[in-house]
Specification:
mainly beta
């Protein structure tokens, strides 16, 4: 069982930056690949980024490539999402998730989810 708690969301102007954090409970954090998804009202969660268990490989949605960076600190049991050059269309609730798959980009491959943190980008 893994419990995930996101933090770091908020209101930011277009062009600004935010760093999201996701802290995992338990001592098995390094067993899981980690991902971030975004969800807007009335839509399915969309893949944003993922990172392998060791942190050696990452994957990004085309819409965030070059702007967002996913990283992890296994000693701290935390995964991060650095969000730069934010756009109004990045506005969403962002969820972190843990998966036993190597580098998954589909939500059905994730086993555990956090409660989400709201990111709002004003124009």
């Amino acid at each position: 069982q893994v419990q995930l708690v996101e933090s770091g969301g908020g209101l930011v102007q277009a062009g600004g930056s935010l760093r999201l954090s996701c802290a995992a409970s338990g001592r098995t954090f390094s067993r899981y690949a980690m991902g971030w998804f975004g969800q807007t009202p009335g839509k399915e969660r969309e893949f944003v980024a993922a990172i392998t268990r060791s942190g050696s490989s990452t994957q990004y949605a085309d819409s965030v490539k070059g702007r967002f960076t996913i990283s992890r600190d296994n000693a701290k049991g935390t995964v991060y999402l650095q969000m730069n050059s934010l756009k109004p269309e990045d506005t969403a609730v962002y969820y972190c998730a843990a998966s036993l798959a190597p580098l998954p980009d589909r939500q059905e491959l994730y086993n555990y989810w956090g409660q989400g943190t709201q990111v709002t980008v004003s124009s």
